[in-house]
Each structure stands twice: as structure tokens, then as C-alpha cells.
């Protein structure tokens, strides 16, 4: 009996077609096959082939879109980390590359990033004047800045250029949504300086960036969430969620000047009594009077959120 010829299945056909087109440098056609294969088999190995094709096409944003979904896989080895960081370098996201290398140090990549940034600043390819104008415009609007707008604004900025631009502005900011983003970028990029900044809520303050935490890792925020959960989880999970969301939003504007750990319990009680008072608890109304400074600050913060609601 003659031997049966085994034909490749759909995935095998797509892989073979894509590979042949890659060898023929027909990257646009290969992209279609890799995308079709990725839809059928969304695994790391297929994704890296798709990402490499997008890189060769110069679509660095597209490559990052897919690669970022597998960030933890890229971070497992030096070779894959190198590939991942270089995607951001190609896309001009130097600050995000600093973020990655702050968490996952690599001397060779750090030297490569530094050299690239020096060339960028030397050639003057980034228009910092227009970036400063945009920041001033945002400052006058007194509203949050969308994540994609912020990332586009950061693109092509070197760390040195970003630091100088931020320092030129953060003693004069009126928009409370800006300073937290600037400070978090500094900390995420591994900047270790002590700087004086001006908070809308706290005035001029010294910030030791070396001891700073990213907002979601801040001990005060973590403790606040724990205390809210301990009190409300079994009583009313919906109120627990509402308080958690509001407290996090308030702390986001106060960052990096969050309540101390010893002050957080009073903040938790102030939210608790507010919600209890809403439902007619007269004792809660009386208890809330013990936290006038916290209530005044919350009222001020709420006014900023109300501006754009």
C-alpha cells in the first residue's frame, strides 16, 4: 500500500508561506501570513516572527503593540530583553527604555541607550521648545492628560532633556494632574536626585527621588486599600469599591506627597463616615467633624475632578 502523503495543516501552511516570503524579503505579504497564523496560534514564538516582520517594515509602534503583550516573556533572557528594549529605541521611546533598564539592569544596553541619547541631543532632533509649549498648554487647561497623548509627548525626548524641561516648569505648575506624572517618570527612569517642586495642594516641597515609589507601589495607597477592604468587604462590597476608587483618585493628585502611614487610618475613617452619613447615620456625621483638614483637602481635590466631569 503506498505511503500516505502528509500535507501541512492550516497553521503549517501559513508558517511555511510566511517563512518563504521573509526569505524573499516580501515582508508586507509575510506580515499578512504571520497575522493570520497569530490569530490561530497566539504564542510567543509566532508573535516574535510577526514583530520581526513589523520591525523590518519600519512599523515600530505595531511591533511594540504585539510585543508588549508578552513583556514578561521578553524579560526572561538577555537576548530577548535586548530585542525588546531595542524596539523602544527604534520607536524613539527612550524614557520607556530607561524604565525597563531601571528594573532590569543591563550594562551593554544602558551604554547603547546613553550613546543614542547623546547623538539625539547633539543633533538637536527633538524640538524641546514645542514640547515646552505643549506642557504649558496642558497646564492652562487644568485637566488630566490622556495616556497616549502623554506617551506621544515623551517620544524622542532623552532623559537629560526631559529632566531639564520638567525642572523648568514644576515650580510654576497650576494643573495638579501634571506634577504626579513628571515625578513618576523621574522615579521610573531611575533618577536619584533631591528636587524641590511645587504642589498645588502642599506648596513647595523637597522630594528625595532615590527613596520614591511609583504611585501604585506607594505604601500609603496600599495601606489605604487594605483598611477599606477590612471594614467594607463583608458589609458592602459596592461601597468598598466606590471608596477605593475615590481614595485612589484623590491620592493620585496628592502624589508624591501622600499621607504618612500613621495618617492613613484617619483618611480611611473620613471616607467611611462620609458614606455612612449619606445613609443617615447621625453618629457618622458627628465623627466626621474630627477630620476638618482632611475634609478640606478632599473638597479641594474633588473640585478639580468636577471641573472636567
Walk me through what this model shows.
- The protein is built from 17 helices and two strands.
- The chain is mainly alpha-helical.
- Strands 1-2 form a two-stranded antiparallel ribbon.
- A hairpin with a 3-residue loop joins β1 and β2.
- It is globular.
Q: What's the overall geometry?
A: globular
**How would you classify the quaternary structure?**
single chain
Please indicate the percent range of residues in DSSP E strands (runs of 2 or more).
under 5%
Q: Unreliable stretches, pLDDT < 50, 5 or more residues?
A: none
Question: What is the share of helical residues?
Answer: 55-70%
Q: Largest sheet at a glance? A: 2 strands, antiparallel
DSSP, total strands: 2
How many structural units, i.e. domains?
A: 3
Specify Rg, calculated over alpha carbons. 25 Å
Query: What is the topology, as strand order, of the major beta sheet?
Result: 1-2
User: Could you tell me how far the N terminus lies from the C terminus, measured between alpha carbons in angstroms?
Assistant: 76 Å
Count of helical stretches = 17
Give helix and strand order, one letter per element, not per position. HHHHHHHHHHHHEEHHHHH
CATH superfamily of the largest domain: Tetratricopeptide repeat domain
Structural class by secondary-structure content: mainly alpha
CATH architecture of the largest domain: Alpha Horseshoe
The third-level CATH topology of the largest domain is Serine Threonine Protein Phosphatase 5, Tetratricopeptide repeat
Query: Which CATH class of the largest domain is shown?
Result: Mainly Alpha
| Average predicted local confidence, pLDDT | 95
Amino acid at each position: 500500500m503506498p505511503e500516505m502523503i502528509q500535507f501541512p495543516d492550516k497553521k503549517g501552511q501559513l508558517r511555511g508561506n510566511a517563512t518563504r516570503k521573509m526569505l524573499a524579503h516580501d515582508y508586507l505579504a509575510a506580515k499578512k501570513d504571520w497575522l493570520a497564523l497569530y490569530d490561530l496560534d497566539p504564542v510567543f514564538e509566532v508573535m516574535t516572527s510577526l514583530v520581526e516582520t513589523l520591525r523590518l517594515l519600519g512599523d515600530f509602534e505595531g511591533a511594540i503593540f504585539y510585543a508588549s503583550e508578552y513583556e514578561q516573556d521578553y524579560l526572561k533572557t538577555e537576548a530577548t530583553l535586548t530585542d525588546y528594549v531595542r524596539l523602544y529605541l527604534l520607536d524613539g521611546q527612550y524614557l520607556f527604555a530607561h524604565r525597563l533598564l531601571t528594573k532590569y539592569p543591563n550594562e551593554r544596553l544602558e551604554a547603547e541607550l546613553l550613546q543614542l541619547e547623546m547623538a539625539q541631543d547633539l543633533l538637536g532632533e527633538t524640538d524641546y521648545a514645542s514640547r515646552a509649549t505643549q506642557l504649558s498648554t496642558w497646564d492652562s487647561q487644568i485637566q488630566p492628560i490622556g495616556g497616549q497623548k502623554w506617551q506621544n509627548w515623551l517620544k524622542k525626548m532623552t532623559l537629560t532633556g526631559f529632566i531639564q524641561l520638567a525642572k523648568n516648569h514644576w515650580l510654576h505648575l497650576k494643573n495638579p494632574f501634571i506634577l504626579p506624572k513628571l515625578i513618576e517618570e523621574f522615579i521610573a527612569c531611575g533618577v536619584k536626585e533631591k528636587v524641590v517642586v511645587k504642589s498645588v495642594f502642599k506648596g513647595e516641597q523637597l522630594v528625595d527621588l532615590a527613596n520614591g515609589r511609583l504611585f501604585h507601589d506607594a505604601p500609603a495607597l496600599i495601606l489605604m486599600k487594605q483598611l477599606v477592604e477590612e471594614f467594607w468587604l463583608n458589609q458592602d462590597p459596592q461601597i468598598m469599591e466606590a471608596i477605593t476608587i475615590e481614595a485612589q483618585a484623590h491620592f493620585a493628585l496628592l502624589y508624591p506627597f501622600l499621607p504618612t502611614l500613621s495618617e492613613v487610618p484617619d483618611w480611611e475613617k473620613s471616607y467611611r463616615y462620609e458614606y455612612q452619613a449619606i445613609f443617615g447615620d447621625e453618629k457618622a456625621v458627628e465623627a466626621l467633624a474630627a477630620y476638618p483638614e482632611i475634609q478640606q483637602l478632599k473638597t479641594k481635590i474633588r473640585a478639580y475632578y468636577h471641573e472636567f466631569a
